[in-house]
Write a structure and sequence with these properties.
Elements (H helix, E strand, L loop, with lengths): L3 H10 L6 H17 L26 H9 L4 H13 L3 H6 L5 E2 L4 E5 L5 E5 L3 H7 L9 H15 L5 H14 L4 H8 L4 H8 L5
Antiparallel strand pairs: 1-2, 2-3
Helix pairs in contact: 3-4, 4-6, 4-8, 8-9, 9-10
């Protein structure tokens, strides 16, 4: 007969990760049908907790991948955008709106207006970014233009490439370099520390 113990043992024996949840739902439907049609006296699935789903670790641009992407750029502006995305952890809209006056090169920082209309201080990036803003006031491209450029680079290199993958790359790199997750959270403007901790888990892979 179907028992909670038997169902639990079966689910635990599966090695399909998040796919276990689909098996659980099928068993739940079967148990409900058997119970409603009086084939069983009680519904065993009511005493079985659904399998926990593991959060998927999304792609993060590594330092090596950044070098490949930079070498595939067609102009200095694109190189500066990629460098700022990876070194600062800024969001797509923040990069599109940043101005030369927002940078403090003595400190190596940049002030951005982020989520929730809050100002925060980010890392300013490297010499490529500085060289661009020495002769330009902005990147002179809208957020959707940056998105298109990143998509094109992704197709050319085979590297999963969007603003968020750079943001995650920033997080992983900074934690790997020794910064605390609290400092990385503040620099990247994440509302919850759990987001930083989740991204930094990819260090174990």
């Amino acid at each position: 007969p179907l028992t909670p113990e038997g169902i639990n043992n079966y689910l635990n024996s599966l090695s399909c990760g998040n796919g276990k949840h689909n098996y659980y739902r099928c068993i739940k439907t079967l148990c409900r049908w058997l119970y409603q049609n009086d084939y069983i006296q009680s519904n065993p699935i009511e005493k079985v907790s659904p399998p926990k789903r593991q959060k998927k670790l999304l792609p993060a641009i590594s330092k090596e991948q950044l070098e490949v992407l930079l070498s595939s750029c067609v102009c200095e502006r694109d190189r500066a955008i990629l460098s700022l995305l990876w070194h600062s952890g800024m969001r797509l809209s923040e990069v599109a709106n940043v101005k030369a006056q927002d940078f403090n090169w003595n400190e190596g920082t940049v002030i951005v207006l982020g989520k929730g209309n809050k100002f925060r201080k980010c890392l300013a990036g490297n010499g490529v970014v500085k060289a661009w803003f020495e002769t330009h006031d902005s990147f002179e491209i809208a957020a959707n233009g940056i998105q298109t450029m990143l998509q094109r680079l992704g197709e050319a290199t085979g590297i999963h490439c969007n603003a968020h993958s750079f943001r995650r790359g920033f997080c992983v790199h900074q934690v790997k370099s020794g910064l605390s997750t609290r400092v990385v959270q503040a620099l990247g403007g994440w509302e919850q520390l759990t987001m930083v901790e989740h991204y930094s888990k990819s260090l174990t892979f």
